[in-house]
Specification:
Elements: E1 2-6, E2 15-19, E3 29-38, H1 41-48, E4 64-72, E5 84-88, E6 100-104, E7 108-110, H2 124-137, E8 145-149, H3 154-165, E9 169-174, H4 179-185, E10 189-192, H5 198-201, E11 206-211, H6 217-223, E12 227-235, E13 251-254, H7 261-272, E14 282-285, H8 289-296, E15 305-308
Parallel strand pairs: 8-9, 8-11, 9-10, 11-12, 12-13, 14-15
Antiparallel strand pairs: 1-2, 3-4, 3-6, 3-15, 4-5, 5-7
Length: about 300
């Protein structure tokens, strides 16, 4: 089968596109005929070797995947050959940048029926990140107020949609390039972070501050003053500590996205009910994935890209 893989960590040039052995599912596993995988920033980090996820080389990237089950291993229940599914695969194992991929049976759920199967690969990890940040870590509730710093990215737009669905007021920061998209996602108030000081631009305090941007640690710490007593600061920027304020009871949490089959099923239901929009900005063939990594290495990949296997 065709796949993109790398035998050593390094720059985009270590990626190879070619023939590899087709995998066979073991007990508890299924094999997918891949429709698409999704490109994530972590794929770039694992390939470059600076993200501490212990992959076994050679490695096939692409831990978000959609496809059709074409083989099942022993002891698998609940899914059958022919099922259309999506999954958030274990990041240390081979991913979906291939024509076929092995997945734990409990890592896949029925795909949305309201969007193309290939586009559904864009949903799992980023939507789960937004959910876990807001609900599991932020403990956000209806009637509260949320500030999202760096809302113009994919996770930010999912977070806006989920927060608004929950009855939360959303204040979001964005650049001029992404303001329209953030507004379309449903933000109540948008602040252009390129021309405003957040500490003075945000009117009043918020219950939860969600940071999705690579801001300076000192600036991040200063923003804690915007959070009310007993609130929460949540961040997806794992390369620096998330600040809190123990004296005021402001909790600090860093999100490391985790697979969650139940939550992913709920997210699929929201998509099919028209209450959550899946963003896909580009679709590329599998052979072009190395070039996409090269773009990402210099920061030129806005939005969400799905990588078509066929």
């Amino acid at each position: 089968m065709k796949a993109v893989h790398f035998h050593e960590v390094g720059g985009p040039e270590v990626l190879q596109f070619g023939e590899v052995e087709q995998p066979v599912p073991a007990a508890g596993q299924v094999r997918l005929r891949v429709a698409a995988s999704a490109f994530n920033a972590a794929d770039n980090g694992m390939r470059a070797g600076f993200l501490p996820i212990p992959v076994v080389l050679p490695h096939v990237p692409g831990y978000d995947v959609s496809g059709i089950i074409d083989a099942v291993g022993g002891g698998v229940e609940g899914v059958v050959v022919g099922d259309r599914v999506i999954g958030f695969l274990p990041m240390e194992q081979d991913g979906g940048a291939a024509e076929y991929v092995i997945a734990p049976a409990d890592a896949v759920v029925a795909a949305p029926t309201s969007i193309p199967l290939a586009d559904a690969a864009a949903l799992p990890s980023v939507a789960l990140t937004a959910w876990q940040a807001l609900v599991d870590e932020g403990r956000l509730e209806a009637g509260q107020r949320l500030l999202i710093v760096g809302a113009g990215g994919v996770v930010g737009k999912y977070a806006i949609q989920l927060a608004k669905r929950a009855g939360v007021e959303v204040v979001a920061t964005a650049s001029p390039r992404s303001i329209d998209a953030v507004r379309a996602a449903g933000a109540d108030e948008i602040i252009d972070h390129t021309g405003a000081d957040l500490l003075s631009a945000v009117d009043g305090q918020v219950d939860v501050l969600l940071n999705l941007a690579p801001i300076e640690p000192g600036q991040f710490a200063a923003l804690v003053a915007l959070v009310r007593d007993g609130g929460a600061v949540v961040s997806t920027t794992a390369f620096m500590p998330t600040p809190g304020d123990e004296k005021r009871g402001v909790r600090a949490a860093t999100v490391y996205v985790r697979p969650n089959r139940e939550r992913l099923t709920e997210l699929v239901s929201l998509v099919d009910n028209g209450r959550l929009t899946v963003e896909v900005t580009r679709r590329i063939p599998l052979a072009e994935l190395p070039a996409l990594h090269a773009e990402a290495s210099v920061g030129r990949v806005p939005g969400k890209v799905v990588v078509l296997a066929g």
